[in-house]
Amino acid sequence: xxxxxxxxxxxxxxxxxxxxxxxxxxxxxxSACPSTGNPQSDLNSIFTAIAADLSGVxxxxxxxx
Length: 65
Description:
The protein is mostly helical. The chain is 31% helix and 0% strand. The chain has a domain at 21-54.
């Protein structure tokens, strides 16, 4: 990103995402905000993908109960 150069809201949100697999975009009326890490483009599919990601087993640090 170049300082002083305007960027789109889509580009800003892509830059905020921790990695491309964590960025989702809804295609509303053919908007050009592609998600290279996720092919989903409607809200139901996006929420289903996020829920599947969150339901995985996560390791706990030692010393926790």
